[in-house]
Amino acid sequence: MLPSHYRRCYGCGPDHGAGLRMRLTVGQQASIHAQLEVTDDHQGAPGLAHGGLLACALDEALGTVAWLLGTPAVTARLETEYLTPVPVGSVLHIHARCTGVTGRKISLVAEGRRNGPTGSPAVRATALFLAVDLEHFTTHGRVHDVAQAMADPDFDTIRRAFGINP
Ligand SMILES: CCCCCCCC/C=C\CCCCCCCC(=O)SCCNC(=O)CCNC(=O)[C@H](O)C(C)(C)COP(=O)(O)OP(=O)(O)OC[C@H]1O[C@@H](n2cnc3c(N)ncnc32)[C@H](O)[C@@H]1OP(=O)(O)O
């Protein structure tokens, strides 16, 4: 199981009060398994998960695969297919994997299944991530947030955990 890459991440951060708190584990080769518990807080239509939130959960798993490759990367393109509704109370089992790397471009796919990791897919995504350097975050984000993340006493452990070379 991987630690959260950033404690305040909406997808996986333990310090995010309203976040998804996804649990992510490393799979075979360049892949990630993740689970999302769909709760009352995740509804779009009554009793059903919001589609944008499901896209977020897939994005989190896809981004974690990209980091397994040893570089921070950001989503450039994310295409999502919704195959069946996902009700509150279900656990979405997500599998995300890398399908190819060309220069800075990282191609990935993900599937989310209900009723266990071998259930039929409810949602699918195809994505392009672009590898970026740390400057991307300090230029476009807030320097003090980046500094705070790097000052986390667990930051070295987090970096080492992501230093798995598939
Ligand atoms: C101390 C702390 C540090 C922590 C670091 C942690 C890292 C994370 C680690 C783990 C994360 C796990 C979980 C996270 C999951 C969530 C991920 C997100 O939600 S990310 C947020 C949303 N995404 C953005 O905000 C991007 C906004 N866009 C941009 O910044 C730029 O557009 C960017 C970087 C994507 C590309 O800009 P350019 O200037 O670098 O690159 P150009 O030259 O435009 O393109 C390069 C190549 O890519 C293609 N390309 C670019 N965008 C494309 C697109 N949308 N569709 C298709 N191709 C595209 C281009 O055609 C070009 O291809 P040709 O080299 O010519 O073949």
From TrEMBL:
GO biological process entries: fatty acid metabolic process
EC number: 3.1.2.2
Keywords: Apoptosis, Cell membrane, Cell projection, Cytoplasm, Fatty acid metabolism, Hydrolase, Lipid metabolism, Membrane, Transit peptide
Reactions it catalyzes: (9Z)-octadecenoyl-CoA + H2O = (9Z)-octadecenoate + CoA + H(+); dodecanoyl-CoA + H2O = dodecanoate + CoA + H(+); decanoyl-CoA + H2O = decanoate + CoA + H(+); (5Z,8Z,11Z,14Z)-eicosatetraenoyl-CoA + H2O = (5Z,8Z,11Z,14Z)-eicosatetraenoate + CoA + H(+)
Entry membrane topology: Peripheral membrane protein
SUPFAM superfamilies, alphabetized: Thioesterase/thiol ester dehydrase-isomerase
Pfam families per UniProt: 4HBT
Predominant location: membrane
Name under which the protein is recorded: Acyl-coenzyme A thioesterase THEM4
Organism: Longimycelium tulufanense
